[in-house]
Design a protein that fits this description.
There is one protein chain. The protein has 596 residues and is α/β, with parallel strands linked by helices. The protein has 20 helices and 26 strands. It has 3 domains: 249 residues, Rossmann fold, CATH 3.40.50; 191 residues, ANL, N-terminal domain (Rossmann fold, 3-Layer(aba) Sandwich), CATH 3.40.50; 138 residues, ANL, C-terminal domain (GMP Synthetase, Chain A, domain 3). The strands form 7 sheets. A 5-stranded mixed β-sheet has the order 11-12-13-14-15, with helices on both faces. The chain has a 4-stranded mixed β-sheet with strand order 2-1-10-9, with helices on both faces. A hairpin with a 7-residue loop joins strand 7 and strand 8. The N terminus is likely disordered.
């Protein structure tokens, strides 16, 4: 482990410790070292940001809005706000103006720091209930916003060192607005002590290597990205490679060769598709060598999952074969990974089994914003497929009679911002956080997540089912299925809306096909995939009919939250005609539509 001071009581103190310990190490970079910022330069930027905020009227406890893609300036501004004793509030850049206005008004943000590309949407947000006192464009001049030079004004009478030293462990580190699948977002208030407590608990489980490399590509408005990259960078001195477009993450992985990776399963699904395509393109003896190596990996993983000893001979043969498997991981930038953590959506066990066989140290975890991102996690060397792992040290966990998971720990949220009634409903008088997730706990204390309490399907015959698990099975059956939404509540059978991945369709469907011929080819592939998924599902869970949707569902849109969670009520309303047609049609044919 890295020698990291464990006594810091605030993220500001941790940042100062790190910047003094490794001033010339690289803190922040972009693809191909186009931009490189050392810890000394990072600290200078933090000072300038804090001084600029004070010069423009920001005082302790004030909220500072941040709306950026993943870029070095985000980290500088967010950390600078903390040093000014302000509370950074990061906004998803995919949100429409009215939702942005609601969040910023609810948080009380008056100073907003953004990029030139987002200035127009923030000006549009001001046509609603929110007004900015100061709007800053951090990269390029933009009409209606201050430039970076105009913002970074030296503030007379501001004592930078006294400011950050005055930050308390109980001060807010951020207000993180959960994206929500219904209603307005909820502002989760997280204190410095909660963030640091969660970081140290995760470190005790995963450890850390000297000068670790990480790619930052998930939205910084989400607590998981902050707790996996931004905050541990401050504590441990990571080198963060900033990826401004999640669609370009593979190039960044290859460029960075990260030690730690965290993502919902969709990234790993795409990486698996790429690896399998590379294997399929290999011929002759090389193909046989890879197939044999992967077979050894599966044999080893399956023994470990059964709790059986791995024979010495198998272990030796697998170690010898690892060179071929490591090359496959290297092709997608994963060959230096110490921990590959996934969660925040159902994880098909076969996906992790594949990567474990390759030798990737894959782990599944679970958590929520209200618990500072991570609550349970499998341990390195002790991964159990289908399980979200054991509670983190310091995290107590129990189940209600209906299976709802309750959590209690020192790093729960302080409250929901401006929502005292909802806070009281969520954290009871004994300090237990009611998560809304249904789960199980086995004899070893390992947690498995069934589904959201409010999203369970109860069909017309009274059978309870998890739509999320069925959807994960559909997506795992073929990379062609980008999204799936299962419907079946109070219905005689399950149907699904299936969204096609256009990139994968371009690979799997012959390029000369167009029009109806192309649609027929895609339909045939999806039909095969649904049939394959149904073989893995109980009879009552199986998909009887599906509607193929040829347009994308985008994060932050009608169908998906910014964190890629299905907005089920909105989907049901938008596609009501498609859904009713599947139940009204007595035939076995599949319906098709394009989103309009």
């Amino acid at each position: 482990m890295t020698d990291v001071p464990s006594t810091a009581s605030s993220l500001c103190e941790a940042f100062q410790n790190t910047s003094l310990r490794s001033p010339d190490s690289v803190a922040l970079r972009t693809l191909g070292d186009a931009q490189v910022i050392t810890w000394r330069q990072y600290a200078e930027g933090v000072r300038r940001t804090a001084e600029g905020l004070h010069a423009h009227g920001v005082r302790p406890g004030d909220r500072v809005g941040v709306m950026m893609v993943n870029r070095p300036e985000f980290h500088i501004v967010d950390t600078g706000a903390l040093h000014a004793r302000a509370v950074p509030v990061s906004i998803y850049n995919s949100l429409p103006p009215e939702q942005i206005a609601w969040i910023l008004d609810d948080a009380g943000v008056e100073v907003m720091i953004t990029e030139a590309r987002f200035v127009p949407v923030l000006l549009a947000a001001q046509e609603h209930r929110w007004r900015a006192r100061v709007l800053v464009s951090i990269d390029q001049p933009a009409e209606g916003a201050l430039t970076r030079d105009q913002f970074e004004t030296v503030s007379t009478g501001f004592d930078f060192d006294a400011s950050w030293r005055a930050v308390s462990s109980t001060d807010l580190a951020t207000i993180s607005y959960t994206s929500g699948t219904t209603g307005n977002p909820k502002g989760v208030e997280l204190e410095h002590r909660a963030v640091l407590g969660n970081l140290r608990a995760v470190e005790s489980v995963l450890g850390t290597v000297p000068h670790p490399r990480v790619v930052s590509f998930l939205p910084a408005a989400h607590v998981a990205e902050r707790v996996f990259s931004h905050y541990p960078s401050i504590l441990h001195g990571y080198t963060l490679t900033c990826c401004p477009d999640p669609a370009d993450v593979v190039r960044h992985l290859i460029d960075t060769r990260p030690h730690y990776v965290f993502s919902p399963p969709r990234l790993f699904e795409k990486l698996r598709t790429g690896i399998e395509a590379a294997v399929a393109a290999t011929a002759g003896d090389d193909r046989k060598t890879i197939d044999d190596a992967l077979a050894l990996g599966y044999e080893k993983v399956d023994l470990e999952q059964r709790g059986a000893a791995v024979p010495a001979g198998l272990a030796v043969r697998y170690d010898q074969a690892r060179i071929h498997l490591t090359r496959l991981l290297g092709a997608v930038g994963l060959d230096h990974v110490q921990v590959a953590l996934t969660g925040s959506a159902p994880v098909n066990p076969d996906l992790l089994r594949f990567f474990l066989a390759l030798g990737l140290p894959g782990l599944e975890g679970w958590g929520l914003s209200e618990a500072c991102a991570f609550a349970t996690m499998n341990r390195p060397g002790s991964m159990r497929l289908g399980s979200a792992g054991l509670p983190l040290p310091g995290m107590a966990i129990r189940l209600l009679d209906d299976g709802e998971i309750l959590l209690r720990s020192p790093w729960l949220m302080k409250r929901y911002h401006n929502r005292p009634e909802l806070t009281a409903e969520t954290i009871d008088s004994e300090g237990w956080l009611h998560t809304g997730d249904i789960g199980t706990i086995d004899d070893e204390g390992r947690v498995a997540i069934v589904d959201r309490k409010k999203e369970l399907i109860i069909n017309a015959f009274g059978k309870n089912m998890s739509p999320a698990n069925i959807e994960a099975t559909l997506k795992d059956a073929s990379p062609l299925i980008a999204q799936a939404c299962v419907i079946g509540d109070n219905r005689p059978y399950n149907v699904a809306l299936v969204v096609v991945d256009s990139v994968i369709a371009g690979v799997e469907v012959r390029p000369h096909l167009s029009g109806q011929d192309r649609l027929d080819a895609i339909t045939a592939l999806v039909t095969e995939s649904v049939a394959r998924a149904n073989k893995s599902l109980a009879r009552v869970e199986q998909i009887k009919k599906f509607t193929l949707l040829l347009d994308e569902w985008l994060p932050g849109g009608v169908e998906l939250s910014p964190t890629m969670k299905l907005r089920r009520k909105a989907i049901s309303a938008r596609y009501q005609a498609c859904i009713e047609a599947m139940y009204a049609d007595a035939s076995d044919r599949t319906a098709f539509t394009e989103r309009g």
